[in-house]
Amino acid sequence: MANHPTITKRPTADISPRKVALIAGIGLLVMAVLAPLARFGVLQNLIVPADAAATVTNITASEELFRVAIAALLVVTFLDILVAWALYVLLRPVNAALALLVGWLRLAAPAVFAVALANLLDVAQLVGGSDGAALQPAQLQAQVMASISSFDNGWDMSLAIFGLHLLGLGYLLFRSAHFPRFLGVLVAIAGGGYLADSFGTILIPDYALTIGAFTFVGEALLIFWLFYRAIKGFPSGSDPSESESPGAPVTEQRLTQPTTLVP
Length: 263
Description:
Helices cover about 70% and strands about 5% of the residues.
């Protein structure tokens, strides 16, 4: 008698699109709070671009706060990894290849930013460690400002990659049945704003515009819409690349593993 292969299914993953949307929403919300507080609430108040002596004095007097800001930005990079996974899971039914590329771009941005963040840690070590104490004040100030400049440059590079990520994300949201098309357009515009600022900094000396400060609306709305989907759920049986029909039934579909053949 011939041996016929038996079909076995791997265990169903204990997670649903609703839970993934909640994870993404919480991650983005925490990032939206931590990043501005650390970057603009702490670092911007301590760093005086045209005054190295004042910058060193400020950081020395608030070294603990400076280190907390660094830690907060590091947490942001960790959350970016989690959000990259969640968005990939939610949007891969629209276009798996593009969703993978968009996910990798979101991973690349925090990787570049983490390298830039190491420059701020160098600053903290200089003002609070024995290496800085052995330097002359002028040398210490020069090294601190050089490290801060390297951090700013790394920040701009990471925002360029992040802007490219948002362009792809905007397209996926535009094509998805689970998100409104205007949201995809606004997210893409936010990406364009970051790209404009990054290339403006590279190409134009003393570039002073901050277009991204006015085009971030799509990012904020995405957080709210993820929470909306986490509460309402996702329609079942709909093509993720087509418009959602009103009144579509909402189910808690599980994300399952593929079926395999076992001889």
